[in-house]
Amino acid sequence: MTAWKQAVARAFDRADEYDGAARIQAMVADGLAVAIAAEPLAPSPHVLEIGCGTGFLTQALRSRVSVGPMLASDIAAAMIARCRTRIGEVPDLHFAVMDAERPAATAGFDLIASSLAAQWFAHLPGALAGLAALLRPGGLLAVTTLAAGTFREWDAAQDKAGRVSATPAYPTIETLRSMRFENCRTEIRLEDVRETHADGAAFLRALRAIGADTPAELAAPRSAGQLRRALRAFDAQGASVTYAVATCLIRRAGEPKSARQP
Ligand SMILES: C[S@@+](CC[C@H](N)C(=O)[O-])C[C@H]1O[C@@H](n2cnc3c(N)ncnc32)[C@H](O)[C@@H]1O
Known about the structure:
This protein is α/β, with parallel strands linked by helices.
């Protein structure tokens, strides 16, 4: 695992205030569960969840879809422990510490789902291709991730302060729509979700609380003076940020397993 990825995992391990600060993540996870429930699925689908975190999607999915055996995974061991605590002991629900870009799982899933974890992948198209290859014919890979335009208000405030933003370079909708996966049909939806904070300091505290404060790989060092100026500019703009949330529905060719198949 690269040093940057280890830093990402450590930041999420430390995120014991996640649930109190992750309003957008809770909302997006529920929206993804609704979108998945509206899709044709195999009966009692065999599910792999990627980047389960504290279990917002795990819980939403289990309440909206009649799932079969489920493996909930995350790169951060402490996140898995928090998810276990949220869901409790449930038959046929298993957990694994796993980097989704090197999945230690064998093919045969009817549904692979992930909410707001894929923006942490080092190589999104390669990672999604690897996950799509684990689907059964007719299976669905359903992922929300962040697209270009996310945190544009914070980036603009930093520009004004002469500070280079450490926000990762999220893919544009065109880049996402140009992704192709073998034997799969892909649909990408984009939605802006806004969140207003008391001020810029509260925004940065919330990012840290949810473990999302690891700067982009190779981000340039910035000074404390630049940060203060950026925070003033951000507060003057109203301390709101946009999350550009992309929902990727990747369907493997073939019929979903029917109730009569083993
Ligand atoms: C913003 S949280 C989202 C958690 C949860 N899905 C939710 O909706 O609240 C991102 C999660 O992705 C995990 N993650 C980041 N990179 C990962 C990777 N390469 N493989 C698996 N999980 C990863 C983090 O540890 C963290 O728990």
